[in-house]
Specification:
Elements lengths: L2 H41 L3 H21 L4 H4 L2 H21 L6 H4 L3 H24 L3 H18 L11 H40 L1
Length: 208
C-alpha cells in the first residue's frame, strides 16, 4: 500500500475509536452520577430511590460493556475502571443497608479486578455510615458497622497480586487507615457512654 492509503486506514480506525471514547466517557459520567445518587439516597433512608438509581446505573454498565466489546483497549481504561468501582461501591452499600446478599462481579457485569477495587471504596462508605450512626447516638449500630468493615478488610487483605494485574495494594492501605481511625472513634464513644452511665448512676444514688 502507498503511505496515503495506510494513513487513511489508520485515520478510519482512530476516528471510530475516538467517537466510541467520547460515548464511553459520557456513559461513565452517568454511571458515576447515578451511583453517587444511590449512596446519598441510602444515607437519607430512601431505599427505593437508591434501588431505582442502581438499576439505571446497571443498565448503563451493560450498555458500556456491549459498546466496547470489540474495543478491549478502551474498556480497560482508567475512566471505565473508575465508573465500575463507583457502581460496585454503591451496590455493596445498598446490599449492606437492605440486608440483601452482596452481588457478585458477574451479577454486576464488571471485571473482577474493578470489583476488588470497589470493595476498598465500600469500606470507606461504611465509615461514613458509621459516623452518622455515632452522631445519632446509636453506638450499637455503629459497632455493628465497624465489625462489617473489619471483616471486609480482612477478606480484602487476602488478595495479594502484582500491581500490573490489579492495583489493590493502594485500596488495602487506605482501608487499613480508615479502620484504625474508626476503631479509635468507636473506643472513645464507648468510653464516653460508659462514663456517662456511671455519672447517671451516681446522680441517681445521690438523689435517692
Amino acid at each position: 500500500m502507498e503511505m496515503k492509503g495506510i494513513i487513511e486506514e489508520i485515520r478510519a480506525v482512530l476516528d471510530e475509536k475516538d467517537s466510541l471514547r467520547e460515548e464511553a466517557l459520557k456513559l461513565t459520567r452517568e454511571i458515576v452520577r447515578l451511583s453517587g445518587d444511590a449512596v446519598k439516597a441510602l444515607h437519607r433512608g430512601e431505599v427505593e430511590r437508591a434501588r431505582e438509581r442502581l438499576e439505571l446505573a446497571g443498565r448503563k454498565v451493560a450498555e458500556l460493556r456491549e459498546m466496547l466489546s470489540d474495543h478491549r483497549d478502551l474498556y480497560h481504561t482508567g475512566y471505565v475502571q473508575s465508573a465500575h468501582q463507583e457502581f460496585v461501591e454503591a451496590s455493596l452499600f445498598f446490599a449492606y443497608i437492605t440486608g440483601e446478599e452482596y452481588p457478585s462481579p458477574g451479577e454486576l457485569g464488571v471485571p473482577h479486578a474493578d470489583y476488588a477495587l470497589g470493595i476498598g471504596d465500600f469500606i470507606g462508605e461504611l465509615r461514613r455510615h458509621f459516623l452518622l450512626l455515632l452522631l445519632a447516638g446509636d453506638i450499637e449500630g455503629a459497632e455493628k458497622t465497624y465489625r462489617t468493615m473489619e471483616e471486609t478488610y480482612e477478606e480484602l487483605m487476602t488478595l495479594e497480586y502484582p500491581k500490573g494485574l490489579v492495583n489493590v495494594r493502594v485500596k488495602q492501605d487506605q482501608a487499613r487507615g480508615i479502620l484504625e481511625r474508626t476503631l479509635e472513634d468507636l473506643t472513645r464513644a464507648k468510653l464516653s457512654k460508659s462514663l456517662e452511665d456511671k455519672l447517671t448512676q451516681v446522680q441517681n444514688y445521690v438523689n435517692q
